[in-house]
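Example record used in the benchmark description.
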Amino acid sequence: MALAEAAGPTNVPLIDETIGQNLEATVARFPDRDALVAPHQGIRYTYAEFNDAVDIVARGLLATSVKVGDRIGIWSPNNAEWVLVQYATAKIGAILVNINPAYRTTELEYTLNQSGCRTLISARSHLSSDYVAMIDEVRPRAPALEQVIYLDSEDWQNLISAAETVTAQTLRDTSASLSADQPVNIQYTSGTTGFPKGATLSHANILNNGYFVGEACGYDETDRVCIPVPFYHCFGMVLGNLACTTHGSAIVIPGTSFDPRAVLETIEAEGCTSLYGVPTMFIEELNHENFDDYDLTTLRTGIMAGSPCPTEIMTRVISDMHMEQVTIAYGMTETSPVSTQTGADDDTERRVSTVGRVHPHVEIKIVDPETGRTVERGDQGEFCTRGYSVMVGYWNDPDRTAEAIDADAWMHTGDLATMDEEGYVKIVGRIKDMIIRGGENVYPSEIEEYLYTHPEIVAAQVVGVPDEKFGEQVMAWVKTKPGATLTEEEVKEFCRGRIAHFKVPAYVAFIDEFPMTVTGKIQKFRLREMAIEDLDIERAAQTEMA
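Model output (structure tokens):
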């Protein structure tokens, strides 16, 4: 039996350019092709127009004294301005800090301070979130933050106007001073212990990953990619935006956040050839009451990621949505993100049961978590990956960087996997406790630490429990002080508005003592079993769906 290790092809060379250089090369090839389309904003840029708009934002930022290496936060749902800021910061050597639109004050404050953001570009509001009020609340506790630029306001217009004070040559000189291995992006991934970690990614990391994802989807200048997944995540800004701009394809934004009707309307109106989403998004699109009224025949490919796809859904995506070449991608933010991907010609069984084979210029192996030795194909172990895609490190956190990346440059993912004889990988579990709720990664320790701040809670343990709609839901087991009268609803209310909505426990149970191992470690698997057995979570979820 062969060992569970594989190396991707290297016949297509890595791109040794910055994101700005690569964009301008694409502009030279396809100046009149659509680059960015946002129907809900009435915006449509060709590549030449897009590059001009990016340069104006870049020069405006230089006018506000942004320097190479400065961190610029962006807190906004999907819109054209988000994409302009992504490429403008890359051109001037600033480091874009992605802030989840669902964040609340606790998370916002931590992100701004841990990254040392000098500038924050923000929407004024989104759905139920009043960003202005939250920024006003945390700003006195964010000493590095010097300026806030609100989109859809005079702030943004002033930024655009300020571009006139900086010459195009100054921008060119700044861009020319940059190298592909410099950091360009920080994305916060919820920590398995303590607060989130800032995965720091370079131009080379995400530019090449976006390129090879686009290659796997067969993109060229005729493709139009509908991107309803959020830009703050690698799925949107790397698999989406960078896959497009490395191939001359069009970025198509169907709305500020996911709406199945808007997605279906946009595919038809814009003739989209590719569609992205997590399985729950595809389920909502397929189950939309007017699904049959939309012409989706232009679709051929796309990416599904975030959680396993049921066979029935994959079959319908291929047949009813005409996505015969849809691919499955697997990775993590720390690896830019994709390490494996299915091919356009893989059968349905491969697409629903595996996450594909190794990406170009990437090495993977599956190791025994205890010994570190590579296991045989078919055996279970921890998935590890190495290559250009592994992050620079966690921002200002060398200790946790060293825990994740070993001395031989292997990134240890914490995911349990197997590899078959043909090199296809299956993800079968997690060494870590991570919960995947509707495509959002939720780390229990982050919620636990927040719950500990409640004056009546002495201990808390968070686990994932089955849920038909989201795959998993968040469940909190809480131990209170003697005599406390805390209720389930009071615990939930304590979390609402302070942590992201997808982290707020859907279920809360109270416990006197946690189940322990003989060495004194809490048995989280037992808490999950207790939740399913005692609270009948699965039946409750099914009843709620019905």
